[in-house]
Amino acid sequence: MDWLSSSMWYWLCLAITGIISGVLGYFFGKSDAPSSSDNFFELNSLEIENAKLKSDLETCKKHLDSDHIKTKVLNLDSEVKFSKSEDFIFQVNEAKAIFGKTMNENDLKLIEGIGPKIEELFHNVNIKTWKDLSETSVDKCHEVLNSGGRRYRIHDPASWPMQAKMAYEGHWEQLYIWQEKHKAGKY
Q1: Which residues of the chain form beta strands (DSSP E)?
Q2: Cβ-contact 130, 177 below 8 angstroms
């Protein structure tokens, strides 16, 4: 019996030591790992920045290829003169072909995250067009949302100026793809 009780104490001590080591290892490992929410917000901001850069790149490519820019080389100085580009003309049929629905020019509700009430808040501060919204800072968008009260503070307007710029410049396919990827803030 002496041998049996000493063997049992041995296995019991070994089991307790294993459990304590496992629990401590779990907590030490968890404290060193980066938070998944930190990664989520960093990834979200990088995707938004990437979308903005892609939009700017497409705009630059269109300007280089378009007939709106006239260049004239004078002598050997290579002096280049540019004419001003014309403003974007809203093509309802192009937008309808991409989005599958008829839309009105400068309808802020086209922007993912903006509904009728938020559109009204922007109209109250004289932001009524896609161009106006594209030239508005994200901080100003937060101010507009805050003017509506607590219930509007949950919205994230970080991408609204970028989306408005795509709409204003007529990048319908690019805007549609971006919105489908970020539908209702879900990735």
Answers
A1: 73-74, 79-80
A2: no
